[in-house]
Specification:
single chain; 158 residues
Length: 158
Amino acid sequence: MPETYLSIMLQSLRKKEEVLDEIIRLDDLQKETLTDPSRRADEFDKTVEDKSACIEQLEQLDSGFEKLYAQVEEELAANSGAHAEEIRQIQEKIRSITDKSVRIQAQEARNKDLMMRKFDIVKKQAKDVRLNSKAITGYYQTMKGPVSLEPHYLDGKK
């Protein structure tokens, strides 16, 4: 029976690795969206939604893995030699998952910096538009003023 649990745990780790690969792909897509000015904001939003779904999937996989591990923990401790190959494979997958998690954290930090810079640029553009709009409004109000001047008398004296 522990062999079945161990194979399910290994399968869960493989699935987790696939989900992490998808998050890495989505992080790369986010980076492209943030650096390419021709990309639209809704593309970024879609990427965020997709990553959120992946994170929910990871949480479910983690929860299931922990439950399975709790059921076989004593058996593994008592008979670790009998399950050495499965344990080695699980440890290998956990190392790979940890490496990918570190990579994702670094990508997320870089994307956050890119996003903050992009927000600063958008804020500056909005401010420029607002200032330009005020200038144009002021110009039109000035031009809308009276067209004729009051009569003035000029004399030739100096």
